[in-house]
Structure to design on (809 residues):
C-alpha cells in the first residue's frame, strides 16, 4: 500500500493527473511517474548520474559556503549570527532539496537522507509559530535586506516571500514522496495555512499577489498530496488577482514607473495574449494557469494559456528552444526580437518553458508541445550545465565574442539549483497515457511499467537517439489487449522545425519515417503529431522506428531581422554551432554557401562523445586599410550547441550568413583590439570593451557590454595591457547607461592612469574629464608610452555602471 501511495505521489510531482478518491478534475492525459521509468540510455543516464553524484552534493556545498543553510540555523536559534546573502536565497536550498528527493526516490542513499533530515530540522526550527518562514526577517527584523518591506507581506512586489515558500512546498511534496516522512510537508502545510488565512477575498485579508510567480505551482502540488481544495482555490486566487487593480495597486518598475509588464501584473491573466516581462516569472505563471485550466475546467484560463503559447511559439522562441531575449529585466522582447550575441535565454527560463509545455501536452494531447519541449531539452536547457556537472550558464546566447564561460556559482544562483531539480525528474516526461492510449513522447533508452485501465504494460526502448533515428520499442501487456500506442513523430521529421512559421527548413526532405511492427512495415496516420497504432498487443510485440536524420539548414521568418540571409544547422533534435577552436580561431567572420553540404561523424573522445558536422566555409577579413575584403577558403566544423564552451574561451556562432551582405568580416586590428583586457569585476562580457563595435546609444542592448553589476557606488577599474610599449594620445569611451529602468548609469567621475617604471601614474589631460551619454566620451592626453593603461571609475551612489567600447589612438 505504501509503495502504491509513493507511486501516486511521484505522478503528482510531475504536475500529473492521478485521480484521488474524490475524482478530482484533472488533466485529460496522465504522465507516467518518473519513479516508474528507469533510464538505460547512453545519452541521458550519464547526465542523471552526474547530477546525482556531482551536482547535488556540489550545490549543497555551495549553499553551505554561502551561508544559505546557516541562515535557517540562525533563524531557528540553533546558532548565533546575522543573515547573509539575498532575500531569496532560501529558495535555492529548497530547490536542491527537491532535486535530492527525486534522486533519493530512484537511488536510495542513507547518507543523503540523513543530510536532508538534518537540514529539514533546521528549516522547521526557522519557521515562526504562526507558520511564517522567511529567514532574513526572522533573523534581522530591524535590519532587513533591501526590498523586503518593513513588515510581513507589505512589499510583495519585490520581497520574494511567497516565491520562496512556493519552492518549499514543491520540495516538501518531493521529500514526502521519496521517504514517506512528513517533516517538511508539515512545515509546508503550516505555512500554506497561514498564507490561506492571510490572503483571499475577505475584508480582513490581504489581496496582493507575489512579485515572482511560483507559489501557484507549489500550492497545486499541496492540493494534490493533501486533497485539501483550499490550496487549489488559493492558487487560483493569486492568478485571478494578478492584473486586478481593484484588489491591489498594480506593480510597476523603473525610476519613472513606466515598466508595467515586468511581473505580468499589467492586466488580468485571462486577458493576456502576448508573452511579456520577466520570462521565468511568465512561464511559471503560464504553468500555473495550465494547472488551473485542467483542475477547475476553466475555459477562460484554457483559452488564455493557449493564446500565450501560440505567441511564444510563433514569435518569441529561439531555435534552441530558449525564451527571454532581453538582458534588461531578463525579459521577453518584442515579437520577432531574437538577437543572438546579446540573447539572454536564462537557463531557468528554459526549465520553466519545459514545465509549461509538458502541462500544455497533458491538457491537449498534441505532440507540438513535446516538440518544443524536446528542442529546449537538448539545446537551450542542456547548454546550461557543463558535462562535469559543476559549472553553469545563466544566460545562453546564440553567439559569443569569446567572453562567455560557465561559472561555478552566482550571487543569484537560481539556475544551478533549478538544473539540479529538473534532471532527476526527466524520466517522467517520456511516457503518458489515457485509459486506452499510450503516448511515447521522448525517445530515450528506458524501461517502464505503466498501469492502464486494462492492466499493466511493460515497455522498453533501445536507441542511440539523438545521434541516430533508430528506435526499438518492446511492448509487453500483462494480457493480450487492444489499445493505441501513440508514437510522436517529431516536427523535425515532418519538415517542421517548430509548430509555427517562425522557422522553416531551407529544403524539404522527402524521406519518411518508417515504422515496423514485428518486422513488418506498418502504415499509419499522423493525428496531432502522433502515429496512432491501434491493435491487439501482446507480450513480445516489437515496434521499430526509423527517423531519417539528414543535416538540415533552418531559415528564420523574415521578421527576425538578426537572422536574415543566414541559416542555422541541425540534425534530428540537435542544433549545431561552430566554435573558434575548430574553425581557424574565429567563427563570427564565417560565410557559408547556401548549398553547402555536410558530413557527420561521431567522435567518442570529444566532450564525452558528440556527433560532429564537417564541411567547407570562407573566412572574411578587411585589409589594413579597411577598404577591401580578404576571402579565404577553410574547413568548417560544427558541434552540438549544448557542448560549446568546454574547450576554452573563444567565438561561437549558431546562425551562419550565406550572403556577404549578412557577413561580419574581421576588422583590421587596433591598439585596443589587440590589448589584453582585465577588470576589477566582470558582469556580462569583458570582450565587449574592445570588440570594435560602435554603439547606437548608451542603452544599446543589441551589442554586448561590460558592467560591474551589482556593485553600486564603488570604484572599479578596467585595464589594457599591450604586447609592447605603445604611444597613446587620445582616449574614447562609450559608457553604458540603461536608465531610467535599469540600474546602470554613466559614472560620477573617472580618470586614466598608465604604468611607468612599475608604478601607476595619472595621465596629463588637455582639459577636465568629461562624462557624456549617448556618444563617445573623448579626451586628449599628453603622449604617454606604456605597456599598460587603466581606467579608474567612480560609480554613482546607488548605481552600477559599465562600458560598451573603449578605443585608443
Amino acid at each position: 500500500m505504501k509503495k502504491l501511495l509513493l507511486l501516486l505521489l511521484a505522478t503528482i510531482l510531475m504536475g500529473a493527473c492521478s485521480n484521488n478518491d474524490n475524482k478530482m478534475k484533472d488533466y485529460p492525459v496522465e504522465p507516467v511517474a518518473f519513479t516508474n521509468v528507469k533510464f538505460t540510455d547512453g545519452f541521458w543516464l550519464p547526465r542523471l548520474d552526474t547530477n546525482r553524484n556531482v551536482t547535488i552534493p556540489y550545490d549543497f556545498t555551495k549553499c553551505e559556503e554561502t551561508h544559505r543553510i546557516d541562515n535557517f540555523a540562525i533563524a531557528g536559534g540553533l546558532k548565533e549570527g546575522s543573515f547573509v546573502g539575498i532575500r531569496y536565497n532560501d529558495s535555492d536550498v529548497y530547490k536542491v532539496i527537491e532535486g535530492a528527493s527525486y534522486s533519493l526516490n530512484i537511488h536510495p542513499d542513507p547518507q543523503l537522507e540523513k543530510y536532508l533530515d538534518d537540514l529539514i530540522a533546521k528549516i522547521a526550527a526557522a519557521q515562526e509559530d504562526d507558520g511564517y518562514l522567511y529567514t532574513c526577517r526572522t533573523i534581522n527584523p530591524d535590519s532587513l535586506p533591501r526590498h523586503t518591506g518593513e513588515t510581513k507581506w507589505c512589499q510583495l512586489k519585490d520581497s520574494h516571500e511567497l516565491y520562496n515558500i512556493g519552492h518549499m512546498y514543491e520540495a516538501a511534496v518531493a521529500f514526502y514522496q521519496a521517504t514517506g516522512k512528513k517533516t517538511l510537508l508539515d512545515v509546508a502545510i503550516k505555512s500554506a495555512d497561514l498564507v490561506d488565512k492571510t490572503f483571499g477575498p475577505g475584508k480582513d485579508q490581504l489581496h496582493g499577489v507575489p512579485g515572482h510567480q511560483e507559489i501557484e505551482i507549489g500550492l497545486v502540488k499541496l492540493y494534490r498530496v493533501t486533497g485539501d481544495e483550499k490550496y487549489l482555490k488559493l492558487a487560483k486566487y493569486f492568478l485571478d488577482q494578478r492584473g486586478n487593480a481593484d484588489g491591489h495597486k498594480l506593480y510597476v518598475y523603473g525610476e519613472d514607473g513606466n515598466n508595467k509588464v515586468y511581473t505580468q501584473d499589467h492586466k488580468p491573466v485571462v486577458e493576456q495574449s502576448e508573452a511579456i516581462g520577466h520570462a521565468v516569472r511568465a512561464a511559471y505563471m503560464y504553468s500555473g494557469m495550465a494547472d488551473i485550466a485542467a483542475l477547475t475546467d476553466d475555459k477562460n484560463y484554457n483559452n488564455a494559456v493557449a493564446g500565450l503559447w501560440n505567441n511564444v511559439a510563433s514569435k518569441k522562441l529561439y531555435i534552441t528552444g530558449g525564451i527571454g531575449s532581453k538582458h534588461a529585466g531578463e525579459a521577453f522582447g518584442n515579437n520577432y526580437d531574437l538577437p543572438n550575441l546579446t540573447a539572454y535565454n536564462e537557463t531557468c527560463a528554459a526549465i520553466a518553458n519545459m514545465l509549461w509545455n509538458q502541462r500544455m501536452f497533458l491538457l491537449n494531447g498534441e505532440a507540438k508541445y513535446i516538440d518544443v519541449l524536446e528542442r529546449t531539452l537538448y539545446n537551450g536547457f542542456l547548454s546550461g550545465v557543463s558535462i562535469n556537472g559543476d559549472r553553469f550558464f545563466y544566460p545562453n546566447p546564440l553567439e559569443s565574442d569569446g567572453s562567455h564561460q560557465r561559472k561555478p556559482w552566482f550571487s543569484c544562483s537560481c539556475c544551478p539549483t533549478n538544473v539540479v531539480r529538473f534532471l532527476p525528474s526527466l524520466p517522467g516526461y517520456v511516457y503518458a497515457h489515457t485509459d486506452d492510449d499510450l503516448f511515447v513522447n521522448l525517445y530515450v533508452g528506458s524501461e517502464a511499467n505503466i498501469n492502464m485501465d486494462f492492466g499493466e504494460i511493460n515497455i522498453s526502448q533501445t536507441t542511440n537517439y539523438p545521434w541516430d533515428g533508430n528506435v526499438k520499442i518492446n511492448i509487453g501487456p500483462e494480457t493480450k489487449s487492444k489499445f493505441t500506442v501513440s508514437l510522436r513523430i517529431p516536427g523535425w521529421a515532418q519538415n517542421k522545425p517548430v509548430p509555427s512559421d517562425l522557422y522553416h527548413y531551407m529544403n524539404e526532405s522527402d524521406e519518411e519515417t518508417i515504422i515496423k511492427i514485428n518486422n513488418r512495415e506498418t502504415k499509419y496516420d499522423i493525428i496531432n503529431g502522433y502515429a496512432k497504432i491501434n491493435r491487439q498487443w501482446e507480450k513480445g510485440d516489437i515496434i521499430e522506428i526509423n527517423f531519417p536524420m539528414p543535416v538540415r539548414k533552418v531559415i528564420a521568418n523574415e521578421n527576425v531581422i538578426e537572422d536574415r540571409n543566414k541559416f542555422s544547422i541541425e540534425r534530428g533534435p540537435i542544433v549545431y554551432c561552430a566554435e573558434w577552436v575548430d574553425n581557424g580561431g574565429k567563427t563570427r567572420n564565417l560565410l557559408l554557401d547556401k548549398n553547402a553540404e555536410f558530413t557527420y561523424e561521431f567522435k567518442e573522445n570529444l566532450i564525452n562523445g558528440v556527433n560532429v558536422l564537417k564541411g567547407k566555409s570562407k573566412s572574411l577579413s578587411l585589409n589594413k586599410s579597411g577598404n577591401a575584403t580578404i576571402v579565404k577558403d577553410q574547413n568548417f566544423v560544427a558541434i552540438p550547441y549544448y557542448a560549446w564552451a568546454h574547450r576554452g574561451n573563444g567565438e561561437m556562432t549558431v546562425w551562419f550568413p550565406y550572403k556577404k551582405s549578412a557577413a561580419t568580416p574581421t576588422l583590421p586590428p587596433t591598439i585596443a583590439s589587440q590589448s589584453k583586457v582585465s577588470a576589477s569585476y566582470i558582469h556580462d562580457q569583458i570582450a565587449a570593451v574592445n570588440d570594435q563595435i560602435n554603439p547606437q546609444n548608451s542603452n544599446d542592448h543589441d551589442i554586448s557590454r561590460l558592467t560591474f553589476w551589482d556593485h553600486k557606488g564603488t570604484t572599479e577599474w578596467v585595464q589594457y595591457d599591450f604586447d609592447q610599449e605603445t604611444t597613446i594620445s587620445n582616449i574614447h569611451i562609450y559608457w553604458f547607461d540603461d536608465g531610467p529602468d535599469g540600474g546602470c548609469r554613466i559614472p560620477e567621475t573617472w580618470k586614466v592612469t598608465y604604468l611607468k617604471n612599475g608604478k601607476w601614474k595619472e595621465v596629463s589631460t588637455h582639459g577636465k574629464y568629461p562624462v557624456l551619454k549617448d556618444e563617445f566620451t573623448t579626451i586628449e592626453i599628453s603622449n604617454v608610452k606604456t605597456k599598460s593603461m587603466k581606467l579608474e571609475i567612480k560609480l554613482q551612489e546607488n548605481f552600477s555602471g559599465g562600458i560598451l567600447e573603449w578605443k585608443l589612438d
